[in-house]
Write a sequence for this structure.
């Protein structure tokens, strides 16, 4: 039985806490908490560390009989300067909502925090809790090596990782363990419910809502969410069946310990924060495993209002480069082309990670794009041109913002990419910027096609080469952007960019960078 919640404490049943700091002391505490944690630590500190959550799981999840026997689990929670209340609530939610026969231990890894409450007071607190241990890193290692330290001490058959500001819901672990028991190369992760940073409301995301699996932006290498398409959903026998996921967010997942080690654990050359989740995702898939989102399993996570790792952006970029160099084959050139800063970074020694990839006989990245992550646009490996597009008449550059309401125009060339970075793709699209999501095309004004030029979200084009519905441009004589749909050419006029009848004039000639006409 879980201990009773503190009588009268706010936030029970995962409800929001309605508290506004009133006195100057409260305001000060609120502001300090926000500054230190990027969430409302002051409000969190008022909520019981044993708070209850409404069990809103689908009835099929509640009734389901799980495969037996299920393996025992080491839960690993890493933290760096975590708030007292959120850390303890994470630990108690594990202890109170995990069947004891499945829980081998809870390992807290302190990544060399400075806060006083995380020193002796934490040791003292934990000494009263069964199966909970604190392991301390003598120096700040970053979350990747902190997890590896936790794994070194783990004795369970399965590892379950959690961020240090989570709340596990009833029945969170069994559905994950079942997937591993059935196939040890399956790496399952739960639905991640949002715990709001401001009022700590637990927002349950039910199976009837849109299911979101993990993806990655192939240019910025950021994790992103993808709504699961209806055809995928329909393929399942039951709405509670797992769904394959191309990547995972990284904070909450379970994995067979031997399989994790066999797969090469984490890249211990990665620092502080970021990139490890994409790296392990590519590695799992390319080396024969499977990542699954398991709809019955729920864990809440406090999404911070801002990231506290601004100072570590260079570390993240370096982690990404290590990942790209080992796993992305030629596709890493897409990242580097659009983010030249990557070329200047020394990613360190990657020999052992490359040996690992060989030893595990992993598939190449194009296999992953065709078979696992096939419903996204993959930028060309070798576009026809990329960089600025300069007019030969006035020497100014084609420039557009990410707001399609603002028409593209010609301004002085600044040479910094961004709003002046374009890619002319092999499919004849002219895509804007690092994101490549907006395309140059003709406008329809009051339902009538016009000759004005705008940018608009590009028609979708997937990795497996379906023809695009996007308006096309054809480069002629290396300088003219011919528009077959209107039989006109891109021209710079006094009143802006248009397509006009093709003429042999400099207003219709353009200097494209990095031409590759092969
Ligand atoms: O130097 C550090 N040492 C640490 O121990 C920096 C961080 N940490 C700890 C920190 O205390 C926390 O427990 O690492 C954990 C993750 O850091 P957060 O919570 O500040 O960042 P985040 O929630 O944005 O992290 C997400 O992305 C990371 C990329 O490296 C990790 O994969 C995190 O585990 C991941 N979190 C989740 O996936 C939770 C689900 C939310 C989503 C999406
Ligand atoms: Mn987190």
């Amino acid at each position: 039985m879980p201990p009773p919640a503190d009588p009268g404490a706010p936030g029970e049943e995962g409800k929001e806490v309605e508290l506004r700091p009133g006195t100057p002391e409260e305001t000060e505490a609120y502001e300090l908490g926000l500054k230190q944690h990027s969430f409302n630590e002051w409000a969190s500190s008022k909520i019981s560390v044993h708070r209850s959550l409404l069990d809103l799981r689908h009835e099929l999840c509640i009734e389901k009989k799980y495969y037996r026997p299920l393996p025992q689990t080491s839960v690993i929670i890493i933290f760096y300067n975590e708030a007292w209340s959120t850390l303890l609530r994470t630990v108690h939610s594990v202890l109170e909502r995990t069947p004891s026969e499945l829980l081998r231990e809870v390992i807290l890894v302190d990544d060399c925090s400075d806060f006083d409450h995380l020193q002796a007071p934490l040791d003292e607190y934990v000494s009263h809790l069964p199966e909970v241990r604190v392991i301390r890193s003598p120096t700040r290692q970053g979350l990747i090596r902190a997890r590896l330290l936790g794994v070194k001490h783990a004795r369970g058959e399965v590892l379950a990782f959690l961020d240090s500001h989570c709340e596990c819901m009833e029945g969170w672990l069994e559905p994950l363990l079942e997937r591993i028991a059935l196939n040890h190369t399956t790496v399952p992760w739960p639905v991640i419910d949002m715990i709001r940073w401001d009022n700590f409301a637990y927002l349950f995301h039910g199976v009837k809502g849109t299911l979101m699996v993990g993806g990655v932006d192939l240019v910025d290498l950021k994790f992103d969410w993808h709504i699961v398409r209806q055809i995928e959903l329909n393929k399942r026998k039951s709405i509670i069946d797992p769904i394959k996921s191309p990547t995972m967010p990284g904070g909450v997942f379970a994995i067979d310990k031997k399989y994790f080690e066999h797969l090469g654990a984490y890249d211990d050359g990665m620092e502080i924060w970021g990139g490890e989740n994409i790296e392990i995702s590519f590695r799992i898939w390319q080396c024969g495993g499977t990542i699954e989102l398991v709809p019955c399993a729920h864990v809440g996570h406090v999404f911070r209002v801002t990231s506290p790792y601004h100072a570590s952006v260079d570390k993240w970029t370096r982690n990404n480069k290590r990942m790209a160099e080992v796993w992305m084959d030629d596709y890493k050139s897409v990242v580097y082309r659009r983010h030249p800063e990557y070329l200047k970074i020394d990613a360190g020694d990657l020999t052992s990670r490359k040996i690992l990839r060989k030893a595990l006989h992993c598939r190449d990245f194009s296999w992953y794009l065709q078979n696992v992550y096939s419903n996204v646009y993959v930028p060309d490996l070798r576009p026809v041109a990329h960089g600025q597009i300069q007019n030969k008449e006035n020497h100014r550059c084609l420039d557009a913002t990410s707001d399609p309401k603002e028409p593209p125009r010609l301004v002085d060339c600044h040479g910094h990419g961004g709003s002046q970075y374009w890619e002319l793709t092999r499919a004849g699209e002219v895509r804007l910027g690092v994101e490549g999501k907006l395309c140059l095309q003709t406008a329809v004004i009051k339902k009538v096609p016009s000759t004005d030029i705008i940018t608009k979200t590009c028609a979708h084009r997937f990795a497996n080469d379906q023809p695009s519905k996007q308006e096309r441009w054809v480069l002629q004589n290396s300088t003219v952007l011919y528009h077959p749909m209107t039989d006109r050419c891109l021209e710079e006029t006094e009143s802006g960019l248009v397509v006009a009848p093709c003429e042999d004039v400099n207003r219709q000639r353009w200097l494209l960078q990095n031409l590759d006409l092969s």
The longest strand covers residues 290-302. The chain has a mean pLDDT of 94. The CA atoms of residues 39 and 148 lie 27 Å apart.
